[in-house]
Design a protein that fits this description.
By secondary structure, the chain is of the alpha+beta class. The chain folds into two domains: 34 residues; 101 residues, no CATH class. Strands 1, 2, 3, 4, 5 and 6 form a six-stranded antiparallel sheet that branches. The longest helix has 24 residues.
Length: 142
């Protein structure tokens, strides 16, 4: 009798696992629509403040940044989707010492008007964009 109960539970577990696994791999039309939804591409109003906050987590040492510059938000291709992108150029200290790592250019990607993630090595996203000084980034503290 106990073996029958275990068999039933095992069967339910395997069946539900297969069902849930199928759901995880199904690419529904609604998720495709969400990826191309025009409401996702809202012009970020407070992009500088969002980027400053994200740089605290992105950089090992956010102090002493030099040569900081930033672009205006522009719709650009990120992968195969259009997103608002802001390019940021800066020279930050190397981890654990006072030496500088060299000028780096990254792209901040925005969804629904809010910072989502950085793209490193963002030559494609930053091509042709004008950058202006970004002194707020140079004033970051720990």
């Amino acid at each position: 009798m106990r073996t029958g109960a275990y068999g039933l539970l095992a069967g339910l577990f395997v069946g539900s696992s297969l069902l849930l696994g199928a759901c995880g791999h199904h690419h529904s039309p609604s998720s495709e629509a969400a990826a191309s939804d025009p409401d996702i591409n809202i012009l970020p109003a407070d992009y500088k403040r969002d980027i400053l906050a994200a740089m605290h987590a992105y950089l090992n040492d956010p102090t002493g940044i030099r040569d900081a510059a930033i672009s205006e938000p522009v719709l650009k291709a990120v992968g195969n989707l259009q997103r608002y992108v802001v390019c940021v150029r800066f020279d930050a200290k190397k981890r654990g010492n006072e030496e500088y790592a060299g000028v780096e250019e990254i792209a901040a990607v925005f969804l629904v008007g809010r910072f989502d993630h950085f793209v490193e090595k963002a030559q494609e996203q930053c091509a042709g964009l004008s950058l202006t000084p970004f002194p707020e980034l140079q004033k970051l503290s720990r």
